[in-house]
Amino acid sequence: VGEAVDKLSTENGYFESPYKILIPEDAQKVISVVKRVPGFENVERDLVQKMNQAAEIAAKEATPIFVNAIRNISFDDAKNILFGNDDAATVYLEGQARKSLYDKFMPVIQSSLDEVNARTYWKSVVNEYNKVPFIKKMNPELDDHVNNKALDGMFGLIEVKEQKIRKDVDERTSPLLKDVFGQLDN
After folding, report:
1. In 3-state terms, what secondary structure has residue 79?
2. Mean pLDDT in order along the chain per 10 residues (186 residues)
3. Are 181 and 172 in contact (CB under 8 A)?
4. Rounded CA gap, 43 and 30, in Å?
5. How far is CA 66 from CA 97, 100, 101, 171, in A?
6. What DSSP element (H or E) covers 66?
């Protein structure tokens, strides 16, 4: 968990990872029209960069929520995780923490999108798009999209690490990981 949070919360942590947050599907139509308008040629690149920067800022808030989910794990849950599927710990954490993370991330995402001027930028993009005659007016929201994609990326990275820990003894870097997951080697 710590590795995922550390990696994704650094500068370009999302942007230069397989978990890069891309333009929402419903916004693609807006982008395809607006990027032909002078001054908006780089709209897609700029918006993707701003969304990923917002996610990187929000990711810093994840650790206490994960710690709480881990502290509250029952013996039966721990046993089911250990002897469960290769993603059992990730599935457990997501079930226990996703809603809390979403709620904690949302104001940070909104503030971060504002900090990197993404919402203002997006509003100007949508305003340009909505000036085009005979086109259905649009205003897809960025906040929810960025939040969900940030969480998908975080849990995706946790799952990758979990699978490595389960399969490779060299990935078990702490005595606790060695003791717990060593039981799988027998």
Report:
1. helix
2. 94 97 84 82 88 93 92 93 94 96 93 81 80 79 90 97 92 88 82
3. yes
4. 10
5. 7, 9, 9, 20
6. helix 63-71
